């Protein structure tokens, strides 16, 4: 009988394979995932040892020994005291508003609230009338917030010089200005770099390479000291505006290269199909090329945004009181000074920056997922 | 658009007139002294071995390629570097590509209405009516809300034909429209093209579909090495090709 078997019949019965992990229950899945081979088991044990070494101290410092309520730094200075959250709580207004006048701080609150509402409206993909949101955010909001923050004596809002601005709201202001400005500017620079007009191309390449080729601090110093030289006396840009321009220019150069990557990934056929239909250059770019090119480089764009957000801390170098600088100043307050104050302040700053950057990263993943689902490429 | 038309055209009633066209890709002389006149309503099939310059020739007609010397007149408009002339020509000429080149981020309907809205400045409603009319003609009106990637190759190519027709062109260029298709989808695209030919459209097709050429073409143009070696009626071309290389070519592809 056996010799009559054709070759394509297996000589022995093939045993059923084990059901997938998800069908075996929690503990079996855990064992399979972390202890399947001796190497995997060793790595698991190593990581557990590391966590056991680091976590208890961390938890003790941040939570168990932490001082949550205190009128001043005395309790925090006690030996064995952990993180001084009372210090953060007490200084929080300073972290948010800097030296903005106490009785005017509601103006910052209103500005931040409007901004938050508009950003949620814009980022919520299923929201109604998102074009209106875009118009409100990119056109109306900058003007409104300028008058709210800077003051408009005619409207009864007293003038608050930018010297008094500081804290989280200045950090957000620098970051949002940079983000809002750098994307369109980066797109224009990327298009300029690929232009067939030599003058435009050379200018774009020169700008991108020069700005990318120097450290951000240099750009900030240049913006700070050289911008006033280019305008008539008396029209020198405000001292907060200078680093704003510097940050925006710096981010634009990076954004240009990200966008160029997307443009280069576009198949030639898309340009040709648009041209054959009679579309002119700008409608072609706006309706056919850019929507696709930008979509392919969403990770790169968000990566640049995240980098920019963290780079805003550098404006402290030219004398702007951003969030990190307020933390740095507050920890020197003699009333609070103590061995744990600096650590607490910087942990808080790290949490703040991490929360924003992580949110941006997650949102970009969500958008990618949405787009890939919608179009089933 | 009278300003870009001129009446110096040699033969009245000609849709496309190509005179002593020469083009180089760097050192490579890709089109050599090409002369071709296409009458209104005429169907031309251009064939030849790969690299013979046939695609480049029809891509010159709507100025996707520039050329070094010679003249091309399309619907009486002399092509030049002048953007207005190029735009005027592109309004007369529709094109279908080997790789379909649909816009993947737009729905089928949006693919078809994009140019009517932004080039012809039609209101959205009117553009959609036209688009649905042509989508019905290529027999896929029920796919209008899908994205290109959700359609088969044959369906995508029919959408591409409908998209070109939505601009109401007088001349249609086909650049190997069935070469990228799976075999079972070739027929549906050729049927669509035949129906279009039956309506009296002026057509220039680069294709290796000799059955289509036999059935539809008024003349067959054979190219090799950047030159037109033979122009004849299809029955003459297939039964007794005049040129040695045409004989060789036919022997190779009809095997």
Could you give a short description of this structure?
Chain A is mostly helical and 377 residues long. Chain A contains 15 helices and no strands.
Description:
The complex is a heterodimer of chains A (377) and B (255). With 377 residues, chain A is mainly α. Chain A is built from 15 helices and no strands. Chain A has helices at 26-34, 38-64, 74-77, 85-97, 105-123, 130-150, 168-193, 198-213, 216-230, 241-264, 268-276, 281-296, 298-311, 323-330, 341-375. Chain A is flat. Chain B has 255 residues and is α/β, with parallel strands linked by helices. Chain B is built from nine helices and ten strands. In chain B, the strands form two sheets. Chain B has a six-stranded mixed beta sheet with strand order 6-7-8-3-9-10, sandwiched between helices. A four-stranded antiparallel beta sheet of chain B has the order 2-1-4-5, with helices on one face. Chain B is globular, with a radius of gyration of 18 Å. The model of chain B is unreliable at 7-11 (pLDDT under 50). The A-B interface holds A 267, 269-270, 272-280, 283, 287-288, 291-292, 295, 374-377 and B 62, 64, 87, 90-91, 93-95, 97, 99, 101-105, 114-115, 118-119, 147, 149-150, 160, 163-164, 167.
């Amino acid at each position: 009988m056996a010799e009559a078997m054709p070759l394509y019949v297996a000589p022995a019965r093939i045993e059923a394979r084990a059901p997938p992990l998800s069908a075996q229950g929690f503990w079996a899945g855990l064992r399979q995932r972390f202890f399947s081979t001796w190497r995997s088991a060793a790595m698991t044990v190593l990581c557990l040892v590391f966590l056991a070494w680091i976590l208890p101290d961390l938890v003790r410092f941040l939570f168990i020994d932490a001082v949550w309520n205190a009128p001043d730094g005395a309790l925090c200075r006690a030996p064995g005291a952990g993180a001084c959250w009372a210090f953060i709580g007490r200084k929080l207004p300073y972290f948010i508003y800097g030296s903005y006048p106490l009785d005017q701080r509601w103006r910052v609150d209103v500005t931040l609230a409007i901004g938050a509402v508009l950003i949620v409206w814009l980022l919520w993909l299923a929201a109604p009338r998102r074009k209106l949101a875009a118009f409100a955010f990119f056109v109306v909001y900058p003007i409104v917030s300028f008058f709210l923050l800077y003051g408009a004596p005619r409207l009864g809002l007293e003038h608050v010089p930018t010297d008094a601005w500081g804290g989280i709201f200045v950090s957000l202001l620098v970051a949002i200005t940079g983000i809002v400005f750098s994307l369109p500017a980066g797109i224009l620079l990327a298009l300029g770099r690929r232009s067939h007009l030599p003058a435009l191309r050379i200018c774009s390449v020169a700008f991108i390479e020069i700005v990318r080729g120097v450290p951000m601090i240099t750009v900030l110093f240049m913006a700070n000291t050289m911008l006033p030289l280019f305008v008539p006396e008396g029209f020198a840009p405000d001292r907060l505006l200078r680093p704003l321009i510097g940050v925006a220019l710096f981010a634009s150069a990076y954004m240009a290269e990200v966008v160029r990557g997307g443009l280069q990934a576009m198949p030639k056929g898309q340009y040709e199909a648009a041209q054959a239909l009679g579309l002119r250059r700008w409608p072609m770019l706006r309706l056919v090329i850019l929507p696709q090119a930008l979509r392919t480089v969403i990770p790169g764009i968000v990566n640049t945004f995240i980098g920019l957000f963290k780079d805003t801390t550098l404006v402290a170098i030219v004398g702007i009181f951003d969030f990190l600088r307020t933390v740095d100043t507050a920890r020197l307050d003699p009333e609070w000074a103590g061995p744990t104050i600096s650590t607490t302040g910087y942990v808080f700053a790290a949490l703040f920056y991490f929360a924003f950057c992580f949110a941006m990263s997650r949102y970009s993943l969500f958008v990618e997922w949405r787009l890939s689902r919608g179009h089933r490429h | 658009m009278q300003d870009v038309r001129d009446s110096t055209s040699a033969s009245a009633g000609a849709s496309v007139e190509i005179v002593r066209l020469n083009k180089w890709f760097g050192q490579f002389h890709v089109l050599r002294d090409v002369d071709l006149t296409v009458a209104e309503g005429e169907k031309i099939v251009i064939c030849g071995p790969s690299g013979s310059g046939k695609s480049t020739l029809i891509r010159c007609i709507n100025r996707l390629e520039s050329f070094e010397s010679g003249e091309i007149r399309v619907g009486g408009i002399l092509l030049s570097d002048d953007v207005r002339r190029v735009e005027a020509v592109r309004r007369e000429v529709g094109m279908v590509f080997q790789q379909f080149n649909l816009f993947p981020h737009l729905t089928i309907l949006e693919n078809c209405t994009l140019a009517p809205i932004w080039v012809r400045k039609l209101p959205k409603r009117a553009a959609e009516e036209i688009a649905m009319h042509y989508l019905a003609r290529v027999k896929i009106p029920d796919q209008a809300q899908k994205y290109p990637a959700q359609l088969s190759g044959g369906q995508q190519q029919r959408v591409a034909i409908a998209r070109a027709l939505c601009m109401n062109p007088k001349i249609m260029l086909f650049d190997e429209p069935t070469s990228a298709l799976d075999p079972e989808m070739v027929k549906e695209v050729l049927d669509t093209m035949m129906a279009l030919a039956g309506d009296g459209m002026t057509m220039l097709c680069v294709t290796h579909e000799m059955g289509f050429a036999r059935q539809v073409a008024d003349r067959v143009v054979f190219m090799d090495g950047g030159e037109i070696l033979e122009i004849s009626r299809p029955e003459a071309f297939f039964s007794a090709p005049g040129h040695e290389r045409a004989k060789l070519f036919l022997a190779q592809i009809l095997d």
